[in-house]
Design goal:
Elements lengths: L1 E6 L5 H16 L5 E6 L7 H9 L14 H6 L2 E4 L2 H6 L8 E4 L12 H27 L5
Parallel strand pairs: 1-2, 1-3, 3-4
Helix pairs in contact: 1-5, 2-5
């Protein structure tokens, strides 16, 4: 199973989703899943996303901020768009690829004090973890939507 997370810039939400999918899959102890993330554009990784994932014990610092390619899309079995922009601007998905949309708010757009911004990143991290865990459970059970 090739799972692809797609966002606008592949800097935050899709990076966290990729990290969680890798972590949760490895905790299951098998290698049934290949995980990638990409963006409609590549904006580089968000340092706050790296920091909050590290707090949760997931190191995403070595992941790349990648622009979506036709090869990535063609290799995918399941595509999750994690923002409205990516969902609206996603290229045509091959017919065999299953697609799901998660309308996640962008923590990188949070304002306020540093503590408030980081709280927003942590809330996004935890929401994404729950969504990824649910998705992996459905995929393992063969309940692809």
């Amino acid at each position: 199973m090739n799972l692809l997370f797609l966002c606008t810039g592949n800097s935050c939400r899709s990076q966290m989703a990729e990290g969680w999918a890798r972590r949760l899959n490895s905790e299951l102890g098998d290698d049934w899943l290949t995980v990638q993330s990409a963006g409609i554009e590549a904006h580089g990784k968000n340092p706050r996303a790296i920091a909050v994932m590290q707090e949760a014990g997931v190191n995403i610092s070595m992941q790349e901020s990648t622009k979506l390619t036709d090869a990535m899309l063609n290799a995918a079995d399941y595509l999750v768009t994690v923002c409205g922009h990516a969902d609206e601007h996603c290229p045509v998905v091959p017919g065999r690829v299953r697609k799901e949309h998660w309308p996640l708010t962008d923590p990188a757009k949070a304002t306020g004090t540093e503590a408030e911004i980081m709280a927003n990143f942590r809330a996004s991290r935890d929401d994404i973890r729950n969504r990824v865990a649910d998705l992996l459970q459905r995929l393992r059970a063969g309940e692809m939507t």
